[in-house]
Every structure is written in C-alpha cells, then in structure tokens.
Design a protein that fits this description.
The mean pLDDT is about 85. Strand 1 and strand 2 form a beta hairpin. By secondary structure, the chain is mainly alpha-helical. A three-stranded antiparallel sheet has the order 2-1-3.
Length: about 375
C-alpha cells in the first residue's frame, strides 16, 4: 500500500509535473535563448507567457496523471498557479510573514514555494476534489469551488513552510559549494545525475532548489558564485548520465538508442540497472570526475530548471550558455569536454574494463526496442536460409 502511494505521488505525479515544466518553463527558456541570440523579439515574448503559465501547467499535468475528472483538472490549473506563487517573507533566516508577494525591506526576501508548492497543493486539492466530483446535481459549481478552497488552504498552510525548507537547502548548497567546490562538485553532479536516471524528476527538483528566489538569497548572502557553480555541476552530472549511457550502449542500441538516451533521457536504462546495477558505475564515475572539473576549472554556471535537464533537448547546455558573466572560451570548452567528450570516453572505457572483468555482459545495456528488434525474424535472412 505504501509503495503504491509513493509510486503514485513521487513517480507518476512528479513525472507529470516535469512535463508541465517542460511545456512551459523549459520551452520558454529555449525560445528566449533563440530569440535573444537571433534578435527575434516575438520569441522572447512567447517565452514570457510560457514561464508565466508554469504553475497552471503543473496543476493540469498532475491532475491528469491522478486521473481526475475534467472540472477538477481545470480547477487544478488555478491551484497550481496559487501553489507556485505563495510563499513567505524571510528576514534574517526566519519567516516574517506568509505572503503571495509584498514590498520588502533590503534585508528581507520574498521566497515563493515555486514548483514544490504547486506539487503538494495540487495533489491535496485534486484528491479531495475527486471525492465530490460528479456526486451532486450542481457539480459544475461544487467541484470547482471545493477544489479552489482546498487548494488555497493547502497553499496557504504548506507553501510558506515548503519555501522555508527550500530556502535553507539552497543556502546550504550555495555556501557549501562556495567553500568546498571540489567536494560539492562531486556530490551535486553524482546526486542530481542519478536522480535524472531514476524514475523521478531531476528537472522538478532543480527548479525548486535553483529557483530565482534561491538565487536572490545567494546574492544577499554573498554565495552567488557557489550557487551558480552548483547549478553548473548539476548540468554536468545529468549530461554524464545521458551521454554516458548513450555512448556505452551504442553497440547494443545503435543510432536510435544514441538519440533517445543522449537527447531524451537515461531513464530508459532503469530496467537494465535493476537487473545489473554495475552498468550504472561508468556514467556515475564520469559525473564524479566532470563535476569538480566544472566547479574548479571551467566554472560552468547555471540556475533554474535547466540545471536538472542535461542534454535533453540541449536544455542544460542552453541554461549554461544563457548565464552571464562567464569566460566564453572556458565555457564553450567546458561544455564540449564535460557534457559530451569526457562522459562518453570515460563511460566507454569503464564499460570495456567491466566487460573484461565479466561484470557486464553483452546485452546488459540493450533497450526494450533493441531487444524486440533482435527477437523479430529477419525475412531476408529466412529467405536466404530457405
């Protein structure tokens, strides 16, 4: 029972949340980058509307994933918007007031709960609303009202606390990376990269940790550099998993597997990891090596949801490129080396070694599509044999 609920909320719902983020904030980031570099103003305008709809998209995506009725789904768009916006005014490390937004003193920070707040508020509102949906003759009134009231109550009670937790998590990561860039480069790259491969959303988690509010806190604390370097290490760790698995499994999966993992997601390997966890070692080691190279040598910087995307749609590298105040030569060299070349080379080399030690066997990295293709009869070969 507990496992079912964990899967329902922290796998299914969080996966849907990531899709909502991708359709709004991530696509907005891509369009904004293209618009700024190409001088196309309307793309920048579209990006603004897309990012503004983030909370609503999260609400709709989660409600659909939880199999809610249409009225609940549409009402959850409003709940997602509320949860994304409501937070707390934090002064001197303590919550000063619950708020949606406010004029603040220079020592105060308005910290919204962001996607994390939307996630919890929508789940609560949706599950309660499902109890009343289609149960009365005035469903068109009762269901939206119940959904919005419960959603607001959940947002008002939980979002400031969620914001407070995310505040201190961001403060810790920024401070730790500022003072220990070597160790934190390893930890952030490995942990975020592994989360990307697991059936939970690294994009959603990074959107919470590396949020605009967290960045403002880092600026006020003098740990802005560490905050952005941690985001860069997260990008590198995610790229190491995606590019690593794509490269080391090329023999089994071909070009299709290379693209689906390298530009899609390394989560495709989760079934194979469960059968033989050793295959997870090469890309994870690649992340552990490339992470500190990012924080110490190439100083790649990133923030926001892009930090948890890796090479998926090239969103991670785009997030690094759009971050100002970087050395262009170091940045581009770092992107090529740490996001593509080294993860591929390290993963291929370690896979070869592990195969020699017979810890990885042929076929351990084959995706389901490749296994099905190998099992299907080849008409040309059958004709030749006949």
């Amino acid at each position: 029972m507990v496992r079912e609920y964990l899967k329902k909320y922290f796998v299914t719902a969080m996966g849907a949340m990531a899709q909502g983020l991708f359709a709004t904030l991530l696509i907005g980031t891509i369009l904004k980058t293209i618009g700024q570099y190409a001088g196309i103003d309307f793309l920048v305008s579209i990006a603004g509307f897309a990012s503004g709809a983030t909370g609503m998209a999260i609400g709709v995506a989660i409600a659909i994933a939880l199999k809610a009725d249409m009225l609940v789904v549409l009402s959850c768009a409003v709940v997602g918007s509320m949860g994304n916006a409501i937070g707390a005014i934090i002064s001197g490390g303590a919550i000063e007031a619950w708020a949606v937004s406010a004029k603040i003193n220079p020592t105060d920070v308005f910290y919204s709960a962001g996607p994390a707040g939307a996630f919890f508020a929508v789940i609560i509102a949706c599950e309660v609303a499902k109890f009343v949906s289609k149960k009365t003759k005035v469903d068109i009134l009762v269901t939206p009202i119940v959904t919005l009231l419960v959603g607001f109550a959940a947002s008002w009670l939980l979002c400031p606390l969620v914001a407070y937790v995310m505040y201190y998590l961001g403060v810790f990561i920024a401070a730790a990376t500022t003072f220990q860039p070597l160790l934190m480069g390893i930890i952030v790259a490995v942990v975020v990269g592994m989360i990307l491969t697991l059936p939970i959303s690294s994009a959603a988690i990074c959107a919470m940790i590396f949020s605009p509010s967290a960045y403002l806190v880092a600026v006020s604390n003098g740990t802005e550099e560490g905050f952005l370097l941690a985001g860069g290490a997260a990008v590198v760790g995610c790229c190491a998993q995606m590019v690593g698995f794509a490269a080391m499994s090329f023999k089994e999966n071909g070009v299709g597997g290379l693209i689906s993992q390298g530009l899609g997601t390394s989560m495709l390997q989760m079934g194979n990891i469960c059968k033989n966890p050793i295959i997870w070692i090469p890309p994870t080691v690649a992340g552990a090596i490339c992470g500190p190279l990012s924080t110490l040598v190439f100083k790649l910087k990133c923030q926001g949801v892009s930090a948890g995307m890796g090479t998926c749609g090239l969103v991670g590298p785009i997030g690094v490129i759009t971050e100002p105040n970087q050395n262009p030569a170091l940045m581009w060299t770092g992107l090529v080396l740490l996001c593509i070349v080294l993860p591929a080379a390290i993963s291929i080399g370690l896979t070869y070694l592990l195969k020699k030690l017979k810890l990885i066997k042929e076929g351990d990295l084959a995706l389901e599509e490749s296994k099905k293709a190998a099992a299907e009869p080849n008409p040309a070969q059958e004709k030749q044999e006949a």
